[in-house]
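=== RUN LOG ===
request id: a7f3
mode: sequence -> structure
chains: 1
length: 317
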Amino acid sequence: MSIKQVTVFGGSGFVGRAIVRALAHEGYQVRVACRRIELAEPIKTAGDVGQITILRTNLRNPASVAAAISGSQAVVNASGIAFQRGRQSYRTVHVEGSRAMAEAARAAGVQRLVHMSGIGADQRNSTNKYIRSKVDAEDAIVAGFADATILRPSVVFGPEDAMFNRMAQIARQAPFLPVVGDGSAKVQPVFVGDVGSAVAAVLARPDTARTVFELGGPRIYTYREVAALVLREIGRDKRIVGVPAGLMRIAGFFAEFLPVPPLTHDQVDLLVTDNVARPGAPGLAALGIEPTAAEAILPMYLDRYRVGGRYNQHAPA
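=== RESULT ===
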């Protein structure tokens, strides 16, 4: 039986929306399962009338998860949180949510399950709570659905990303641009559109079941190089200053008391650790996708941070 309908959990998020767009482009009926349906309404325009439907889903309620999957031949798990708040904990969302999805998918006779994880989710000895939850989530997925495909992207970039937009915002307002530690940790940013295309490619190829793909862009940068790239794109000449990781962890700890923390203790740990695809690991190329360079996309959305704004004719192109 061919795949006609796909349920995407977390389809209202930054990565989830790109996945929904890619699947709609390939002609699938897409059911977006999310906690806040008002955030997903705009994604309906990515497909034809009636092609994309939205369903309010609670990952803590197995019956709700099962209802979202019912009738679909494939499931994509793009749900996730960047910080913990109340009942929305890493364990609840990443681990228990993944377990509920995998078990419901198996019970419903779903053909394919694609799980969005992250580079570093193979670090079983990690003490970082965020990474640990990603490790446990992969285990929960595989335990419940042995034929699952796992995608581990590096830092994902695009118009609504966290990393490049946050750096540009800081550079616009602060007298210098800080990096954690000496900024020597490496990162391999991957374009959000390529991540969406990877999901569609995986669903089109049954041979990708039981496989882990690590998704990275065409170039590896240090975080100091990323900072320099941002400054160059927005045309601002400011110093890049390394801030000791210990101080940043303290700042992250207190920032977690804010409604939407700009930085967390766990995120600081990630910024001093390499985030690149393992040599030899199957990635975008194995799926027939040519990775998009950050330099080709950043001018399309970082221009609003330039001196004088987006429409300043004298800003660098």
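=== NOTES ===
The radius of gyration is 20 Å.
The longest helix spans residues 90-107.
=== END ===
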